[in-house]
Specification:
Layout (H helix, E strand, L loop, with lengths): L1 H18 L2 H37 L7 H25 L6 H19 L3 H4 L3 H24 L5 H7 L3 H26 L4 E2 L7 E2 L1 H31 L8
Antiparallel strand pairs: 1-2
Catalytic activity: (3R)-hydroxyhexadecanoyl-CoA = (2E)-hexadecenoyl-CoA + H2O; a very-long-chain (3R)-3-hydroxyacyl-CoA = a very-long-chain (2E)-enoyl-CoA + H2O
Membrane topology: Multi-pass membrane protein
GO molecular function: very-long-chain (3R)-3-hydroxyacyl-CoA dehydratase activity
């Protein structure tokens, strides 16, 4: 019986080693999330610093070649953001999927469709404001998540993470809306992504029609994300109770 007990204990140890202990899996998850947030933080920091320095040196002239200066890094960061939505979907993080998915699809639509496919949009000043506001939001968000992975709580950074979105998110959505509005005449003129319905209808459907619908969706997405972020802030800092005299 002693031999059998020892053999069972040895087999249990081997099984735990092969499966990995809960503590080991937690550390692996934290390490993976730390590296992901670090890469995103460095990418958006590069964009933010680059745009800031160029604006300080060149002034308003820097607005018009923003896309050609930082677009490659923005493409990289936004493609990598797909991982964030996947993490939420499979349970690696506790973030809800919908707000993450709305932000991912909305930003990538602006970046890849509005800016990426239309050279006429790439030299407009609105690109600077869209990229600058996106990066300003993300450098605080990703640095906060990065420190959370190593159980660090820097109060100043925490306050910035849960407060700066209040002015920056609406401004970012406003800049996105302006870029869509400016692109509508260009899409109408070029006919890009427009199509004609088959016989017997034969009606030409302009892509600008979908852009007008998308304008409504931008502010609907803003409402959903704003509500989500407000709940996060309220959970973090709590509600101030009013004193009854």
């Amino acid at each position: 019986m002693e031999l059998r007990a020892k053999e069972e204990e040895r087999l249990n140890k081997l099984r735990l080693e092969s499966e990995g202990s809960p503590e080991t899996l937690t550390n692996l998850r934290k390490g993976y999330l730390f590296m992901y947030n670090l890469v995103q933080f460095l990418g958006f920091s590069w964009i933010f610093v680059n745009l800031t320095v160029r604006f300080c040196i060149l002034g308003k002239e820097s607005f018009y070649d923003t896309f050609h200066t930082v677009a490659d890094m923005m493409y990289f960061c936004q493609m990598l953001a797909v991982v964030e939505t996947i993490n939420a979907a499979i349970g690696v993080t506790t973030s809800p999927v919908l707000p993450s998915l709305i932000q991912l699809l909305g930003r990538n639509f602006i970046l890849f469709i509005i800016f990426g496919t239309m050279e006429e949009m790439q030299n407009k000043a609105v690109v600077f404001f869209v990229f600058y506001l996106w990066s300003a939001i993300e450098i605080f968000r990703y640095s906060f998540y990065m420190l959370t992975c190593i159980d660090m709580d820097w109060k100043v950074l925490t306050w910035l993470r849960y407060t700066l979105w209040i002015p920056l998110y609406p401004l970012g959505c406003l800049a996105e809306a302006v870029s869509v509005i400016q692109s509508i005449p260009i899409f109408n003129e070029t006919g890009r992504f427009s199509f004609t319905l088959p016989y017997p209808v034969k009606i030409k459907v302009r892509f600008s029609f979908f852009l007008q619908i998308y304008l409504i969706m931008i502010f609907l997405g803003l409402y959903i994300n704003f509500r989500h972020l407000y709940k996060q802030r309220r959970r973090r800092y709590g509600q101030k109770k009013k004193k009854i005299h």
